[in-house]
Design brief:
Layout (H helix, E strand, L loop, with lengths): L1 H22 L11 H18 L2 E6 L6 E6 L7 E7 L19 E3 L2 E3 L7 H16 L6 E7 L7 H9 L8 E4 L3 E2 L6 E3 L1 E2 L1 E10 L5 E2 L10 H10 L22 H8 L5 H8 L12 H6 L3 E9 L9 E2 L2 E10 L5 H15 L5 E10 L2 E2 L5 H14 L4 E3 L7 H9 L3 E3 L3 E2 L10 E3 H21 L1
Helix pairs in contact: 1-3, 1-12, 2-3, 3-12, 4-11, 10-12
Bound molecules: ligand BES and manganese (II) ion (MN) (2 copies).
GO molecular function: metal ion binding; peptidase activity
Organism: Mucilaginibacter frigoritolerans
InterPro entries: Cyt/Met_Dipeptidase, Peptidase_M20, Peptidase_M20_dimer
Length: 455
């Protein structure tokens, strides 16, 4: 531990400068206009792997954005850790809400502000630097493989093809990912599950063209009103989702599991204060941790139609749209839920409109084991570097590829994230504490050490 701390202390400034260089690339995967930046980011990551001492570094082309692969095999009789992360980021919009530009990383109050600072550049780069540290100090105790992709934020569909085609190359004993949150630095935690996702877009069409809202209004159904009603009807008075069959496959937690989950520290007034809301909302009968970690949900991510420009235009729109996501828990399946939603949405549509449902990406929920050697290694690593045992939690977000690693490669995952829910992932002013960045670089070598020792 002393040697690790010393290395980080000695190289402090460079470790930060390199992350800043990485954060300057606008590697947005959702918008094709950033394609050149994506390619430059992949080159940068590959070069950093080489510099750190990785072998067989390769930029693997896919039908979409490239995957950066690198490895260091020290002894085939030793265990192998496969590190996964993503160099792509979410779009920075709305730009006007950023205090400093999203791709000009800036430090304020000990925090790095930039798109991708936490999700996931700041977090995956800790692994590159921890690897460098182990190489430089001659302490790499196991084999290591890196796979850093560029399409996580858009559903990882090309990565899943890559994984199926590269099973031999990706053979490993565990997948290690830092792309999740901790409760706080005072309460270090490990996520032991992720929700799945079913994401789709709906279109409601009324008349064949936009109409004068005075001439026709009152006699023709307004698709925006109809869409709002249809969406509102999908939660009942207990905020239960009304799609028939939606909860059929949900596995309820045991009382002991619920208790363990709710033992984690939680301050409701702080939670509300941070978001500036006076009251929480959610499915009746469940706590906040249960609602975000163990229960499925349905959210509107965006809704539009008609005139949304400056001033007022009197118009009865021809169409209204919404983007809807459902977060899934074991044993719901993304495909089944998408089908249930589609059937229901078509069924509740009044005859005055036509509806169309277009599925986007999806992913399956996962629960990661807490009785494995790898989980124990993560527990020990965190206990040593934070001076406190980590609390097991369930993550509300999704990393769809985790279920696929298990299904295709037969490898389980450890989610050792160092972010905070308050890091504003996907929001303006995303941040990552410098403290967490260094802490991650210090903790990761301990994971490898204990994983090799306990294996
Ligand atoms: N890193 C997040 C997922 C995450 C964040 C998990 C915090 C747990 C805690 C990841 O990059 C992400 O945003 N995933 C998307 C899914 C993807 C298919 C767009 C998500 O959860 O919305
Ligand atoms: Mn992420
Ligand atoms: Mn994300």
């Amino acid at each position: 531990m002393e040697q690790i701390k010393q290395y980080v202390e000695q190289h402090k400034q460079r470790l930060l400068d390199e992350l800043f260089d990485l954060l300057r690339f606008p590697s947005v995967s959702a918008d094709p206009k950033y394609k050149q930046d994506i390619l430059k980011t992949a080159d940068f990551v590959a070069q950093k792997f080489r510099d750190a001492g990785a072998d067989k570094v390769e930029i693997c082309e896919t039908a979409g954005n490239p995957i950066v692969y690198g490895e260091k095999i020290i002894d085939t009789s030793k265990p192998t850790v496969l590190v996964y992360g993503h160099y792509d980021v979410q779009p920075p919009d709305p730009l006007e809400l950023w205090k400093t530009p999203p791709f000009e990383p800036t430090i304020r109050d000990g925090k790095i502000y930039a798109r991708g600072a936490c999700d996931d550049k700041g977090q995956f780069y800790m692994h590159v630097k921890a690897f460098e540290l182990m190489m430089q100090t001659n302490t790499l105790p196991c084999n290591i493989k890196f796979m850093i992709e560029g399409e996580e934020e858009v559903g990882s569909s090309n990565l899943s093809i890559f994984v199926k085609a590269n099973k031999e190359r990706l053979k490993a004993d565990v997948v290690l990912i830092s792309d999740t949150s901790m409760i706080s630095m005072e309460h270090p935690s490990l996520e032991t599950g992720l929700r799945g996702l079913s994401y789709l877009e709906v279109e409601v069409t009324g008349p064949n063209r936009d109409l004068h809202s005075g001439v026709y209004g009152g006699a023709v159904a307004n698709p925006a009103t109809i869409l709002a009603k249809m969406i509102a009807s999908m939660h009942d008075e207990n905020n239960h989702i009304t799609i028939p069959g939606f909860y059929d496959k949900v596995i309820d937690l045991t009382e002991a599991e619920r208790k363990a989950l709710n033992d984690a520290p939680y301050d409701e007034s702080e939670y509300k204060k941070d978001l500036e809301i006076d009251e929480l909302w959610g499915e009746k009968g469940y706590t906040t941790f249960e609602r975000t970690g163990t229960r499925p949900t349905l959210e509107v991510n965006g809704i539009w139609g008609g005139y949304i420009g400056e001033g007022a235009k009197t118009v009865l729109p021809s169409k209204a749209h919404a983007k809807i996501s459902m977060r899934l828990v074991p044993n719901q399946s993304s495909e089944e839920i998408t089908k249930l939603f589609t059937d229901h949405f078509e069924k509740i549509a009044p005859k005055s409109v036509k509806v169309k449902v277009t599925p986007h990406h999806g992913g399956e929920p996962v629960v990661t084991p807490t009785d494995s050697v790898a989980y124990r290694a993560a527990q020990k690593a965190i206990a040593e570097s934070f001076g406190k045992d980590p609390i097991p939690t369930r993550g509300g977000g999704s990393i769809p590829i985790v279920a696929l690693f298990e299904a295709e490669l037969g490898i389980k995952t450890v989610l050792m994230g160092f972010g905070l829910d308050s890091d504003a992932l996907h929001s303006p002013n995303e941040k990552y504490d410098i403290y967490n960045y260094y802490k991650g670089i210090e903790t990761i070598p301990l994971f490898h050490k204990y994983f090799a020792e306990l294996s």
